[in-house]
Every structure is written in structure tokens, then in C-alpha cells.
Specification:
There is one protein chain. This protein is an alpha+beta fold. The protein folds into four domains: 3-70, lambda repressor-like DNA-binding domains (434 Repressor (Amino-terminal Domain)), CATH 1.10.260.40; 146-273, Arc Repressor Mutant, subunit A; 275-433, Beta-Lactamase, CATH 3.30.450; 438-471, no CATH class. It has 18 helices and nine strands. The protein has helices at 10-19, 24-31, 35-42, 50-60, 65-68, 72-81, 94-103, 105-135, 145-155, 161-175, 179-188, 197-200, 222-237, 239-246, 254-273, 276-285, 290-297, 301-308; strands at 191-195, 205-208, 213-217, 322-327, 332-337, 366-371, 377-388, 396-406, 428-429. Strands 5-4-8-7-6-9 form a six-stranded mixed β-sheet. It has a three-stranded mixed β-sheet with strand order 1-3-2. It is globular, with a radius of gyration of 25 Å.
Length: 471
């Protein structure tokens, strides 16, 4: 290979090895070279020969183009991490970032792992502080598995490129097999049967390995059936990738790890039904119209809104969204943040946010500008969704979901177009939660904020639920 065409693939080679859970010795044995040679290749101290390139592609069944990006994904990941406000006063030219990834890939990976751990610990500290305030400082609380899982997802901005790439390859195979039902039959010898709920005995999906069948409740809608089949396929074929993502979780409870595994499997299923490249392109083309995207990809409103929060693949980022799902009592059953929204980590959210009012107009999209006490503005879209039902008398649950983004991205959304009365200047002032909100005049307040002294009301009663002293 001429010097001008030498191929240095250190970061890409390291990523391929790491994603497969291999040591340098393992890869060296597979490729019939020495471990020290693999180490030199990964540090970009040696170019990759054409012979070894072919051997790599054949041994690990990879596309040669996967090696040609020379670590562009790692460059994008590092650039994203360096945008954190903690580095705001440091000049960090993009050329230097590329040099670090290219010439010192191990240092770049070490930094990214440390940064992810730092983000997780920030979120854990916020949880511990809130728990201590609720408990009055009495004793240590047992680990909260739901909070553990949410911290894991939030620290990674609910973006898992390894799962996206694997799901996209799998989606291509589905198209060549006449869809997921045909693929399951051809690849796994599994047939799909839809049976009445009394046969399912409380299950929505069940894998019967003895009879080589996947059974589905015939009362769930088409989008849910497709999702359940994709979810089963994720468990069958993407277990290794899910384990790789989970490996650095450091969970304190088994339940927390299991909840996160479920979340990652659902992520993979959504990525099969809405492959990253096609979905991200369609999202921009349709200006993030959730209903139009749902029809294009044959998915539900909630599935589509959820998928929009995951479009943060380094180098291919789209609008960063946050997502929340609540019931009529205000209980949060799903919360994902890719937009820096300060969710209430404990206690109820703000009742002035229209996600709590969407139940008044079922199945209709309601929009709202929000302004936090520190002046940050966000744009929110909310709508109710239904779970269950499917037959007369069957139990169903009505929930509301909200999708939102920071003000600087709102202009890219179809929901902000041609609505004269909808403007950032008319934003609704909300708080994170009453205990942390210091808007003293709020008539919707349910509890006084931490650190404020309540005034007696024997002489004067304010129109707000509580009056506060100035000290």
C-alpha cells in the first residue's frame, strides 16, 4: 500500500474489539498476529495492511467502511462531552480533539469513561440529597432501583450508538425477509400466533420454545404487536450488545440492573422499527411532526415521541428532547432527558405544566412555552395516550406524555409554525417542584419552598397559599 494510502485505524479497531468483548490477545489469536502488533495498530503506530483488512472483515463479518472513519464517532463523543459547562472557560479547538482521539485513543476513552461516571455521580448526589431531605436525615436509605436506572440513562443522554448500529443492520435483514414475522420464521424457526387474552393468562407476549412459537395477545393494537415482536428479537439477537452497554453500569441493586436491561431492550426494539438514519432524516424532513412520523413508520404516538429523545448519536445529532409520561394522579412512569430539563427528582411536578392538563382534551396535542425560575425557556408538546383496552370491558389506562426541547431548537418544530399567540414571551412560569420553586406569588403552590419562613396569617391572608418573610 503506497505511503499516501496508508490506513491508520486505531480508534476504530479498538472499538470493534471492545464491542465484541475481546482482549488484544483474543483478537491477535483470531487474526494470527501478535498481541503487540494489535497494540501498535490501536495506538496508530502501524498502518493496517490490505491483507489484515480483509482478514478482519472476514473474521468479524464487518463492513470495511466501519474501519475507514478513523475514530470519527469517538471524536464526536469527545466533542460532545467537552461542551459541558464545566469546561466553558477552556479553549478547546476541534483539531486538538481530533489529535487526541487519533494519537492517544486510550486517553480519549479513559476521559469519556470518567466523564460518564462523573455525570452519573452528579445525578446520584441529587437523588441522595433529595432523599435525605425527605427522610429528615435519618439513616441511610436502601438503593432506589428506578432512580438507578434513570441515572444510567440520563448520564448517557438516552443515546446508545452501539444498539442503534446493531439494530439498523438487523432492520436491513428484516426487509430482506418480508418483515419481522418472516425473519423470525426463517432465522429462528419461530412462528407468530395471536391468541385471546384468556389463553395468554395476563401476558402480552410469550415465547414458547417447546412449540417454537411467539404468542401475542390478539387485543393489543398493531403498533404494539410490532413492538413486542421487535422486543423479542432484541432479546434473541442483541443480548451481547445490551450486555456491553450494561457492563459499566455499577448498579447497587439487581432490580436496578434488570430495569435498565428492559429499557435497553426496548431501545433496541424501537431502533429496529425506526432505524436511526432513516428516522433522523424523516424527523428533519417532517419538522418533528410526531403523528406524521408515527404513520410513516407504523408506530404509536408514544413510541415515536420516545424515539425522538434518542437522536443524539455523535456526529448525527438532531433536536435534543426530554420526555415524561404521567397518569392523572401525577405519578411519573417514564422520564427521559436529552435536553437538560431539570425534572423533579422527588415529589410532584409543577401543576401549571400542560402535561397535567392534557387529560381535559383527550388525544389532542396541546403546546406550551415554559419558563423556569432561572429564566430558561423550553417548548413542550403534550397529548394523552391509552394503554390496555382492545375489547369491551377490558381495563385501560389513560396517561399523558410530553415531549419538549430548549428554546433555541423550538423553531425547527412544526408545532411552533403559524401560531401567532404562541411565543416565548408568553411562556408559562413554572417550577421544577414546589419545594424547590421560589415563585412566592404562585397560586398553584402545594408546599412551601425549602429555606423560606412562612408568615402567620392571623392578621393578613395572602391570595397565594402561603405568605413568606423577606429573610
Amino acid at each position: 500500500m503506497p505511503p499516501s494510502q496508508r490506513l491508520y485505524v486505531g480508534p476504530s479497531l479498538r472499538r470493534i474489539r471492545r464491542d465484541r468483548g475481546l482482549t488484544q490477545s483474543d483478537m491477535a489469536a483470531d487474526l494470527d498476529v501478535s498481541p503487540s502488533y494489535i497494540a501498535l495498530l490501536e495506538r496508530n503506530h502501524r498502518p493496517l495492511s490490505a491483507e489484515l483488512l480483509l482478514r478482519l472483515a472476514q473474521t468479524y463479518q464487518i463492513d470495511m467502511s466501519a474501519l475507514a472513519d478513523n475514530g470519527s464517532d469517538d471524536v464526536a463523543r469527545l466533542q460532545t462531552a467537552l461542551k459541558d459547562p464545566i469546561f466553558a472557560d477552556i479553549e478547546l479547538p476541534s483539531l486538538e480533539t481530533t489529535d487526541v482521539v487519533t494519537n492517544f485513543p486510550g486517553i480519549a476513552e479513559a476521559f469519556l469513561r470518567l466523564y460518564t461516571t462523573y455525570r452519573e455521580e452528579q445525578l446520584a448526589l441529587a437523588d441522595r440529597g433529595a432523599e435525605a431531605r425527605q427522610a429528615g436525615g435519618k439513616g441511610a436509605e436502601p438503593p432506589d432501583p428506578v432512580a438507578e436506572s434513570r441515572r444510567f440513562l440520563a448520564a448517557r443522554r438516552n443515546s446508545f450508538p452501539l444498539l442503534d448500529d446493531a439494530a439498523e443492520r438487523l432492520a436491513q435483514g428484516l426487509r430482506g425477509s418480508d418483515g419481522i414475522v418472516g425473519y423470525l420464521a426463517a432465522r429462528h424457526g419461530l412462528r407468530v400466533r395471536r391468541v385471546p387474552p384468556e389463553v395468554m393468562i395476563g401476558s402480552t407476549r410469550r415465547l414458547d420454545l417447546h412449540r417454537k412459537e411467539i404468542l401475542l395477545d390478539d387485543e393489543i393494537d398493531t403498533a404494539s404487536q410490532s413492538f413486542q415482536l421487535a422486543l423479542q428479537l432484541a432479546y434473541l439477537e442483541m443480548g451481547k450488545e445490551i450486555d456491553t452497554v450494561l457492563r459499566d453500569g455499577g448498579f447497587a441493586s439487581e432490580t436496578g440492573e434488570r430495569l435498565t436491561r428492559r429499557a435497553l431492550a426496548s431501545y433496541a426494539a424501537a431502533a429496529m422499527l425506526m432505524p436511526y438514519s432513516a428516522f433522523a432524516k424523516a424527523a428533519e424532513a417532517r419538522r418533528y411532526d410526531i403523528e406524521a412520523l408515527a404513520r410513516q413508520f407504523s408506530t404509536s404516538f408514544e413510541q415515536t415521541a420516545h424515539r425522538l429523545t434518542t437522536l443524539q448519536k455523535p456526529g448525527q445529532e438532531r433536536v435534543p428532547f426530554f420526555f415524561i409520561r404521567v397518569d392523572e394522579a401525577g405519578n411519573v412512569s417514564k422520564r427521559l432527558d436529552g435536553a437538560g430539563f431539570p425534572f423533579a427528582r422527588h415529589g410532584g411536578g409543577c401543576p401549571l405544566w400542560n402535561v397535567h392538563q392534557a387529560f381535559r382534551t383527550p388525544r389532542q396535542i396541546v403546546t406550551q412555552w415554559l419558563e423556569l425560575p432561572d429564566g430558561q425557556r423550553f417548548f413542550s408538546i403534550a397529548r394523552t395516550v391509552t394503554a390496555g383496552g382492545g375489547g369491551f370491558g377490558r381495563p385501560r389506562v389513560e396517561r399523558a406524555v410530553a415531549l419538549g426541547c430548549a428554546a433555541e431548537h423550538a423553531g425547527r418544530l412544526i408545532y411552533t409554525q403559524e401560531q401567532p399567540g404562541l411565543s416565548p414571551e408568553a411562556a408559562t412560569p413554572i417550577g421544577v417542584t414546589c419545594r424547590l420553586c421560589h415563585r412566592t406569588e404562585c397560586t398553584a403552590r402545594s408546599a412551601p419552598p425549602i429555606g423560606r419562613q412562612i408568615l402567620p396569617d392571623d392578621i393578613r391572608r395572602t391570595s397565594a397559599p402561603f405568605g413568606f418573610s423577606d429573610s
